[in-house]
Design a protein that fits this description.
The complex is a heterodimer. By secondary structure, chain A is an alpha+beta fold. Chain A has helices at 8-11, 19-55, 96-114, 136-150, 152-164, 177-187, 196-202, 207-217, 240-250, and strands at 67-69, 86-91, 119-124, 224-227, 230-231. Helix content of chain B is 73%, strand content 0%. Classes of the chains: A alpha+beta, B mainly alpha.
Chain lengths: 287, 188
Amino acid sequence: MGAGTLDAVPSKKENNASFGLKAADRRREWLVKGGLTAVVIAFAVALVLYIVMNGQTKADPNQVKAIHIAADNVITNPGTKDPKVTVTVYEDFLCPMCGMFEKTYGPTINKLIDDGDIAVDYHMVSIIGRGDKNSYSTRSGAIAYCIADTDKEAFRRFHSALYYNQPEETAHVFPDNTKLLETARQSGVAVGEQDPVGKCVKNNIYVDMVNNMVHNAGIEGTPTIRINGKDADLSPVGDPKSLVDKIKAIAPDLPDLVAVPPVNLPAQAGLNAPPPGAPAQPAAPAQ
Amino acid sequence: MISRGTALWVLLAGIIGEMASFVLSVEKIRQLASPTYVPSCSINPVLSCGSVMLSEQASVLGFPNPLIGIAAFAIVIVTGVLAVGGIELPRWYWSGLAAGTLLGVAFIHWLIFQSLYRINALCPYCIVVWVVTTALLVVVASIALRPWADNPALKALYQWRWPLYALWVTAIALMILERFWTYWSTLI
């Protein structure tokens, strides 16, 4: 190895006299070097493996991560895997308008997703948290991302459940992480300390990202709804048909899209039930 | 003066680097010719030279980086051939080659950072170039720095050069492991 380079010149003089000894010295020297290097490398590898396997790496704090929800058979642009219509949503779990939006449009959006008409990119941000990492907005948003990493369907149930049990914006006490994890469990994911969701929440994997996302996404308020990247002006208390109309205007060739009536309209008291699967609601099956 | 082993090292590094640069250039041309072309080295979301090659960082000087590699590694091959043939090259030649390799290694570290933390993908051929160029610097610098062989610090550095290189490779590998752990963990 490397003979004849830097140390070749000075060592040449006494080379012949003690050749056997030199060879043995060399071998020993290489054994020492190799052994030391191997020990350092093994230690570094073990340390990094330990850290990544137990600590989990935090999400990039400046990432604007979407929770992409789409049916397997979602209609795509010909020749690509891109859904024809993607509705992008920026919501805060505490924002009252987001709650109304979910109650008005949620059932329609869920039906359009399940029918494969649209894909939805959810972004759970913290705008009411105002940069407080312990705020309900930030905590619940971060937990939502943790759930979505494990089970997208559970995320959808968790998302509905939190809006149907939304705390008052001005409440003094908000559900803590234990309570939120219980809702997550009822939504269908394991939340034990060794389960991915439990670890993700415990290690605050998404807290910084959710806390910074309003700034990084450049949104002005919540809910912000975009259809194929274009701002969609939808009144949170409007008619779900307005969403269907906007989608039809963008993709007229989609098959018949049907709006689903909102669940919380006073005129339809009989329908005042959570969507199927939304946990933590008094059981009152409407149909 | 240059041992045959060292000379072969230089030649081998030149050949490997040249091949990687050539393949990358060809892939780039194919990609430009057809937007739907999927390069041979786009294997999964992390090992994806398609996204790396399309980045701005892949054409720092306004043209694809591998073109620099094709020109530079050709010089390394010629040097290797001459050294294997036992032709003595002047000191200034090795110094120049070492300076050029050092420049290449500096560039490579910038690319490693960009690839891991900005582009968020790896390109296998690029990794080959990272490993080969750094090894080449170890060998060429050892030759170029011979006049200062008595300097104790340099001597220690020289004696530990391959362990240090092994540590460097390990460090880069661990950075890759850590950076893309969320993906690697799904493969286990």
